[in-house]
Model the fold of this input.
Amino acid sequence: MSVQAELQKLVKDTLTADASVMALVDGVHDRVPTDPFKAKKAYLAFGPSDAVSDDAECITGDEITLQVDAFCRHSELDVTCRRIVDAVKRSLHGQELELNTNALVEIRVDSRRVFRDPDGLTSHGVVTITAMVEEPEVS
Done:
């Protein structure tokens, strides 16, 4: 499995299993859903990601950055969105999580932003997550 895909699955599974996150959002989606504001009027979706090689002697590693977006349509737009991005941070930042194939060395939440989308109806939160991952040795 791709290192980035495995990390995204871990982040999604971790957020989905966190009751405090799921109390605020309708779901965690790999992309923006077709009917995004169907239930709770808030959801999470993955945005762009990138990986930079961070190899050392005898170690193949990557520094991976993932973006998780929060989209909200509540009467208290910005407040709700801020609660969501903070819950995402608590769920992931510095946690000792495990990947199946690769080794997660570190995961941290580097930044959280909340702003109003151009439609004037949607609050948009952006959470930037950075992870250091070591790949297993290839025999």
